[in-house]
């Protein structure tokens, strides 16, 4: 087996010293062409496969890139990983993927352990705050580059590749307002995360420009998952008067809003318009298809990997903060609202009891 072949065996087969074999394999010194060819022929005939990890540890840098993501079950993140992996693979780097489960202690452990493996660089979508920023600074102080993706932890001044969260949320909220909605609600992600707080800022900016008043209870903080979006929506939609439109700050939470609306017997979009953020593939298949703000996950990962490889190659410059644009994708979950529609919706809401999602029917 190739893993059992040693340099001593190669040296014996090629009739050279172990040092000569080492110089050929590791390219650490010039070897005469005839000797080099004998060593290479012995390597081929014995099926020797050098240990990339061992070579990397000797050089104190491997061809591995560390990548830490918050939640592998969130369908947005695989696209980010794929973009980074494609760029890394073309440059002969390999990606070690770690899933932090939105757990700051687990995230910190991965950051520390990857450093001990001598990764060439680190890509991270942070799930925590200042504590992880301190760990990341140990990389940069050791000249190991780090690029944050999608979010930045508190106190991070290094490279980052993000999307225009605030502008995307602002555009989406403006669209709801232009469609006649005045009673708006928003379900945010954890506001300790920069992307969640930026999306809330974009929502508030559009609301303030339109001189609308938003009830404090109509701003709910959730966890960027369907279950918390569902629970937040139940609280909002049981209020009177309830909102005519809900902006869920990611598509998983928007799906939770859709589930809650069906459970309460509310049809979308006739009685409730729903706006998401991400424009994931499944949003085309919901009933109705979800209007959402597209953010380019694949491009996020690919751009971050290219920036990281520039740093590994020694390209020096001031820290970069790259912003990728978003785009509003109009589908069928948002409807134009007129004054008479608002009155009718409230009459219907007061006159009927919530029913199960299995018996809910869309009002045509």
End-to-end CA span: 68 Å
Low-confidence stretches: 351-364
Helical segment count: 13
Rounded mean pLDDT score: 88
Proportion of helical residues = 40-55%
Q: Note the beta-strand portion.
A: 5-15%
Helix and strand pattern: HHHHEHEHEHEEHEHEHEHEEHEEH
Q: What is the alpha-carbon Rg in Å?
A: 27 Å
> Could you give the count of β-strands?
12
* Largest beta-sheet details: 6 strands, parallel
What is the correct CATH architecture of the largest domain? 3-Layer(aba) Sandwich
Outline: elongated
- At the third CATH level, what is the topology name of the largest domain? Rossmann fold
Mind telling me the CATH superfamily name of the largest domain?
A: Response regulator
Q: CATH class of the largest domain, anyone?
A: Alpha Beta
Indicate how many domains the architecture comprises. Answer: 3
Helix and strand composition category? alpha/beta
As laid out across the biggest beta sheet, the strand order is 2-1-3-4-5-11
